[in-house]
Design brief:
1 helix; mainly beta; two-stranded antiparallel sheet; six-stranded antiparallel β-sheet; 84 residues; single chain
Length: 84
């Protein structure tokens, strides 16, 4: 996988969808009832000139309530290699 860029605020991102990612759903973030802590995923943010896919990592603080708003808008992407 290609290396992400880093914006002026220090956030890692891609300016186009990297190969190997697909739209995510809530089930992608759990395995046998446990949160996939450490799993990398992307959130697509719409900016004025181009797409911005922020690199995120599942943490214990990540909630389904917060994440689901982006999933419903089809803006969350998971890497195929994260499959079980």
């Amino acid at each position: 996988m290609e290396e992400p860029k880093i914006d002026k605020n220090g956030w890692k991102y891609y300016d186009k969808m990297p190969v190997g990612f697909r739209k995510g759903c809530l089930d992608d973030f759990h395995f046998h009832g446990k949160k996939k802590t450490g799993m990398v995923f992307l959130i697509q943010w719409a900016l004025t000139k181009s797409d911005y896919y922020q690199v995120c990592v599942v943490s214990e603080n990540l909630t389904s309530t917060w994440l689901n708003q982006f999933i419903k808008d089809n803006r969350v992407f998971v890497y195929e290699q994260n499959e079980h």
